[in-house]
Amino acid sequence: MQEQTGREIQPADGRLGVLLVGLGAVSTTTIAGVESIRTGRKRPIGSLTQMNTIRLGKRTDDRVPLIKEFVPLADLDDLVFGAWDPIPDDAYESARVCGVLRSEDIEPIADFLKSIKPMPAVFDKKYVKKLDGTNVKSGESKYELGEQLRADIRRFKTDHDCARLVIVWCASTEIFLQPTQEHASLASFEQAMRDNADAIAPSMIYAWAALKEGVPFANGAPNLTVDMAAMLELARENRVPVCGKDFKTGQTLMKTILAPGLKTRMLGLNGWFSTNILGNRDGEVLDDPESFKTKEESKLGVLEHILQPEMYPDLYGNMYHKVRINYYPPRGDNKEGWDNLDIFGWMDYKMQIKIDFLCRDSILAAPIVLDLALFLDLAQRSGLHGIQEWLSFYFKSPQVAPGLYPEHDIFIQHWKLKNTLRWLVGEEQITHLGVEYYD
Q1: Quick one: 71 and 173 in the same domain?
Q2: C-alpha to C-alpha distance for 351 and 437, rounded to whole angstroms
Q3: Banded model confidence at residue 257, pLDDT cuts 50, 70, 90
Q4: Running DSSP on this structure, what letter comes out for residue 191?
Q5: How much is the pLDDT for 291?
Q6: Which of 68, 73, 83, 113 shows the shortest CA–CA distance to 18?
Q7: What DSSP line would sit under 64-117, residue for residue?
Q8: Is 16 helix (H, G, I), strand (E, B) or coil?
Q9: CB of 225 within 8 A of CB of 169?
Q10: According to the model, what pLDDT value does residue 297 have?
Q11: Given a cut of 60, is residue 298 above it in pLDDT?
């Protein structure tokens, strides 16, 4: 068998700055959780980098280290957090306002949270109509705003003595935008920034600033952001890894778990109706039809890609898929998702599946933010750049190279993620083809 060589991975020495765009529910829950884990108060439940093992070699070899023991990830003690937000509240006040965490989990780390104050944000109400804020940058052009973000990035790295940085978009869903000529090349994108073109949304300015500074960028919302030719050109030019888009947390997480099971058993699906209620800032933003359109596009593609109706028309050719999101303030961050599945089986006998998922949106998103920060830093130190498709596991609408379709099956995504880690280190990738079949 050919010897596995792996890639040269730079050590995770020094501090890793984790810059979060948005200091709302997801970001404060991530920051508070990491600090609670570092101080021994909580466990990193939901985090693959901290709790998942990885099998190496044959099953009989009994080699199953933790992922964090297998690949050289940054240590949690080396993470330093910063953020931008149009609302000036520090992480402590924001966590209290968001209402995700209990007081008994916030107060013991209050001083730490109070030390994290958001930098002025690049924000335009035109793109997120339900929000407003006073902690906002001003400039004559979007290009100038981008340069201000670049200065923030450099200043944070120096002030906090960081060896490396990553940036994760944890802010709101913007209005629906499609790629245009302004996004077709880096030159046209930067000219559009100078011209203050409407095609350039705030999230794109953050991504541009990150990639210009050589900082890996993850897009946690369904916004266009890095999913365009201009950003991929810049990522190649500066050899920076990117990934996105839209954190896979509640209802879509359930779809990527259940739909592969139906397809594996060749059970048919007539319809899947999804609706949910959510009362946090994200729910308020999605109450705007233009922002909801962005989210809807992200959520609707999942079933079609997993079930492949064009290949299985008898089972999924007439499938009806509907998604609804309803803003309901009393529920806060405790999102509730209802799903009704009308399925059919042998001799076309009809059956149903009902799901009522009472989830906590930010509790499910926080470990994703942590894992993406650590894995993107690993990718950068491994010399990887461009779209990191192996991180599709974390996203509703995974970004892929032009001409490819995204993989949505969570089990295939998980397999691809672990095989990529094995490849990085030079271990044999797992195929599940046992030696007893061909010896």
Answers
A1: yes
A2: 38
A3: very high
A4: H
A5: 65
A6: 83
A7: --BHHHHS-PPPGGGEEEEEE-SS---HHHHHHHHT-S-HHHHGGGHHHHHT--
A8: strand
A9: yes
A10: 65
A11: no
Domain that holds residue 338: 251-358
Residue 166 has pLDDT above 60, yes or no: yes
Contact 370, 221 (CB under 8 A): no
End-to-end alpha carbon distance in the chain: 13
Q: Is 402 inside any structural domain?
A: yes
Nearest of 257, 273, 220, 263 to residue 242 by alpha carbon = 220
Domain boundary among 358, 373, 394: 358
pLDDT in tens, 177-205: 999 999 999 999 999 999 999 999 999 99
Residues in CB range of 225: below 8 A, 6 or more apart: 169, 201, 203, 204, 206, 207, 219, 231, 244, 245
Three-class secondary structure assignment of 24-79: CHHHHHHHHHHHHHHCCCCCCCCCHHHHCECCECCHHHCECCEHHHHCCCCCHHHE
> 161 and 285, same structural domain?
no
Domain boundary pick from 358, 375, 401? 358
Backbone angles phi, psi at 62, to 5 degrees: 55, 45
3-state SS assignment for residue 356: strand
Q: What is the pLDDT of residues 355-368, one digit of tens each?
A: 999 999 999 999 99
Classify 320 as helix, strand or coil. Answer: strand
Q: Long-range pairs for 114-118 at CB < 8 Å and ≥24 separation?
A: 114/90, 115/90, 115/91, 116/23, 116/31, 116/81, 116/82, 116/83, 116/90, 116/91, 117/88, 117/90, 117/91, 118/23, 118/83, 118/84, 118/85, 118/87, 118/88, 118/89, 118/90
For the ranges 146-160, 209-223, 296-310, which has the lowest average pLDDT? Answer: 296-310
What is the Cα–Cα distance from 370 to 372, expressed in whole angstroms? 6
DSSP 254: H
Compute the distance between CA of residue 252 and CA of residue 177 in angstroms, rounded to an integer.
Answer: 21
Cα separation, 58 vs 276, whole angstroms? 43
Helix axes 186-194, 142-159, angle to 10 degrees: 100
Residue 313 and residue 243 in one domain: no
Q: Which amino acid is at 36?
A: S
Task: Tell the burial category of 229 from Cβ atoms under 10 Å away from its Cβ (0-12, 13-18, 19+).
Answer: middle
Whether residue 324 sits in one domain with residue 227: no
Q: Please tell me whether residues 53 and 179 are part of one structural domain.
A: yes
CB atoms within 10 A of CB 59: 11
